[in-house]
Amino acid sequence: KAGVTQTPRYLIKTRGQQVTLSCSPISGHRSVSWYQQTPGQGLQFLFEYFSETQRNKGNFPGRFSGRQFSNSRSEMNVSTLELGDSALYLCASSYLAGGPINEQFFGPGTRLTVL
Amino acid sequence: KNEVEQSPQNLTAQEGEFITINCSYSVGISALHWLQQHPGGGIVSLFMLSSGKKKHGRLIATINIQEKHSSLHITASHPRDSAVYICAVRAQRGSTLGRLYFGRGTQLTVWP
Q1: Which residues pair with B70 in a beta bridge?
Q2: Residue B48 sits at the chain A interface (C-beta within 8 Å)
Q3: Predicted pLDDT at A21
Q4: Residue A92 and residue B43: Cβ atoms within 8 Å?
């Protein structure tokens, strides 16, 4: 069974631009969670989607948004990029919604650099 | 102030040494998790704890709910244990019910 895949793996953008990251969950998983990881703040929860609905959201500004498609694939979008948005963005999938983190399978992440 | 504090931030050990990583938290929790992150970003879950102690191979995790503290121990450390270890807690009540909080991680390097 293929794992969680994220595209692209690396991305360089400039301030003010917008970016879209993609996550394909493990086949059969309907829940996708997104996390941001920075050296200063560590890992932080962004949001969780289940069956195309956002179930939970972390404390991030409205510039961060996401969606989930009927095939469970998910995208997250960051508009008006700021330097502080440079981070590793991780996606994790699980079978059930709100599943404990030990039941989540993580992708390799997308490394975003904002110049 | 971070709801989850880990120490040390960086840890270097010689192969075979006994390793301890500490995690303290300030919120009421329903569960605590220890995660391992290898270079390249991939994260795997090592333990989920709500009380007591768990052991898996050379790894041992303990939690003291009253003191709001957990430790991850690695016995007979090996270079392949080199990774970032992250403590995460799931909040138990109130407006933060179900929210996940993460420590900033401990970078462990084990030399042969």
Answers
A1: B23, B63
A2: yes
A3: 98
A4: yes
Question: Above 70 in pLDDT, residue A34?
Answer: yes
Instruction: Report the share of chain B in percent with pLDDT over 70.
Output: 94
Distance CA B15, CA A83 (A): 39
Q: Which helix (H) or strand (E) holds A57?
A: strand A53-57
Across B95-106, average pLDDT: 79
Q: Which residues of A touch B45 (CB under 8 A)?
A: 101-104
Chain B CB within 8 Å of residue A96 CB: no
How many Å is the Cα radius of gyration of chain B?
14
**B76/chain A closest Cα distance in angstroms:** 25
Is some CB atom of chain B closer than 8 A to the CB atom of A41?
yes
Percent of chain B residues topping a pLDDT of 90: 72
pLDDT of residue B97: 61
SS3 A72: coil
Is B41 in Cβ contact with A101 (below 8 Å)? Answer: no
d(CA A77, CA A72): 16
For residue B49, what are the β-bridge partners?
B32
The per-residue pLDDT for range B88-98, each reduced to its tens digit, is 998 876 555 66
Out of B31, B47, B102, whose CB is closest to A43? B102
Q: How long, in residues, is chain B?
A: 112
